[in-house]
Structures are given as C-alpha cells and as structure tokens.
Amino acid sequence: MKIRAAVASVVSALAALCGAFSAQADSGWSELNMTRGVTAMSRRIYDLHMTIFWVCVWIGVVVFGVMIWSIVAFRKSKGAVADVTLVHNTKVEVIWTIVPVIILIAMAVPAARTLVEIEDTTKTELTIKVTGFQWGWQYDYLDDGVMYYSHLDRQSDAARELMSGIDPNTVPHYLLNVDHPFVVPADTKVRLLITGADVIHSWWVPAFGVKKDAIPGFVNEAWFKVDADKPGLYRGQCAELCGRDHGFMPIVVDVRSKADYAAWLKEQVAAQKQAAAPPAAPSAAAPAPTAAAAPRGQSAS
Ligand SMILES: [Cu+2]
Q: 9 C-alpha vs ligand 1 centroid, how far in Å?
C-alpha cells in the first residue's frame, strides 16, 4: 500500500510539473525548449514536439513505475515466489506488442502530416535563392533581379579578432548581427531555394521552424509564412559545421509589412539597376551605394 501511495504521489508530482511547464511557457524554462516561433508551421512543429515529449514522459513513468513497484513489492525477502505462468503468456505478449504499435501509429500520423506540409512548396508568392558560402549568405530575389550578400557585421567582426581589445559584451548582438539583413514580407508564403557555393552549410532560423542544408550542386526547398502581425528581426545561424568561420556567418531576417517590403524592393531594384548601368555619360551621378557589396572573406583557409 505504501508503494502504491508513493507511485501515486510521483504521478501527481509529474502532473503538477506538466502544469507548471505550460504555465511557465514564457519564463526562463522556455529558454531550454524549442521556440513556438512566428509561423503557423513553427507552432505546429512545437505542438508536435510537446505532444510526443509528454507521450514519452508518460511511457517512462508507467514502465519504470511498474518495474520499480514490482521489484520492491515482490522481493524475495518478503517471501515472494516467482510467477512462472507469465512465461510465454500469449495474452500478455499480444498486449505488449499491440499497445506500443498503437502508440507509434498515433504518433506517426500527425508527424507524417506535418512533414508532408513542410515539403509542400506549392502556392508560393515569392521565391528567393539562398546560397551559403565561406562565410556568409547570398540572397537572390529571382523574380526581381535583386541580389546582395549578408556577412557578419563589422562590429562583431572587429571584436572577434584575437587581441582586438574590444569587449564582446559591448557589441550589440555579438556574432549574431549581419551587415545586410535578409528582407522578406510578412504574411507571404516565401519559398527558399537553398544551395551551397563551396561546402555544405545549413540555413537555420528557429523562429520560422526552418533548417535546411545548403549543399553544393543541389537545390533544396524550404518555405515559411510569417504571421501578418509579427514583423521584426529574427536571428539564426549556419547549422552545419562548414569550416574555420562556421560560427561567424549568422543570419538575420528582417520581416517587414507587405507595403514596407514593396517600398524596400523598389529602392533596391532602382539602386542595383543604376549600379549595373554602363558609365557612359561622365556627368552621370555616382551609383548609389547598394546592399550588393562584393563577398568578402570568400577565399578558403
Ligand atoms: Cu556555414
């Protein structure tokens, strides 16, 4: 009876913990977990992750609970005699085969549905090619002819140098800032065509629930649609060990409202057209600085 009470108290403590976890979703505890993100897909992935996490917790509690209770309650010193009828008991074997199969199917159905949807790049409204290189990212807006490179920002780059004398704590978003953030519209299904220029990189932005390898010679697809009310800056990193400066090629996505994005795009198109125009007339104004700076640090180490 004591053991039964102990098991009951462990179960109720775990139930309380479940409640505490969901109540503290925005406290420090959530830092240990996946982010819920800012897209419907990232939330689906999060919910799936939590569902399966709790299924695993309950299986662990039940299996270890029964095991520990059996070991303690039926110990030899208490005079327990082994129950030999349980050996090759067909009924028990059928139950402990069917129950896990049902649990696995119940978990596989929502997981497969989510995976299929992650791969569904139909009905995209904007396609951008993302190329990872040593060490930075190149963004090509295929329909608009806009292209630029995104590198670690100058401040972080200076502070990271050996003996730079700069305290990294004084650098805002140290190693997580870029010179030219990746600008995309909110409330738009954006398809990314992800590839690599030299070695394998991986484009990872947790808030979008997107992590896709950038492999030379292959084009991988990914998509995201940020909630209309969630414009802002979202950060990510290269998630594939790609060489010496793997830790120094962050990603910053600047999600803007559709109107702000359209205005930014117009500006970029005009600026890049001007930069590409042949310098025919000597009186022509100098091309406006654009985001399309030459990639630096492309040479392999
Ligand atoms: Cu990389």
A: 48
Q: Which CATH architecture describes the domain 2-118?
A: Orthogonal Bundle (1.10)
Q: What separation in Å is there between the alpha carbon of 248 and the centre of ligand 1?
A: 8
213 CA → ligand 1 middle, Å = 9
Length of the chain: 301
pLDDT in tens, 42-94: 999 999 999 999 999 999 999 999 999 999 999 999 998 887 776 778 888 99
Q: How big is the chain by its Cα radius of gyration, in Å?
A: 27
Name the DSSP letter for residue 39.
Answer: B
CATH (one of 2.60.40.420, 3.40.50.2300, 3.30.390.50, 1.20.1270.360) for 126-276: 2.60.40.420
Whether the full predicted model's pTM is greater than 0.90, yes or no, is no
Cβ neighbours for 21, distance < 8 A, ≥ 6 positions apart: 29
For residue 207, give the nearest of 18, 34, 26, 47 by alpha carbon.
34
Helices (runs of H) and strands (runs of E) counted in the chain: 5, 10
Rounded to the nearest 5°, which phi and psi values hold at 39?
Answer: -130, 155
CA of 94 to the centre of ligand 1 (A): 49
* Tens of pLDDT, residues 144-199: 999 999 999 999 999 999 999 999 999 999 999 999 999 999 999 999 999 999 99
CA of 135 relative to ligand 1 center, distance in Å: 6
So what's the pLDDT on residue 293? Answer: 46
Cα separations in angstroms, 229 against 117, 124, 222, 258: 22, 19, 22, 11
Mean pLDDT, residues 196-213: 97
Q: Is the pLDDT of residue 116 over 70?
A: yes
Q: How far apart are CA 53 and CA 33, in angstroms?
A: 11
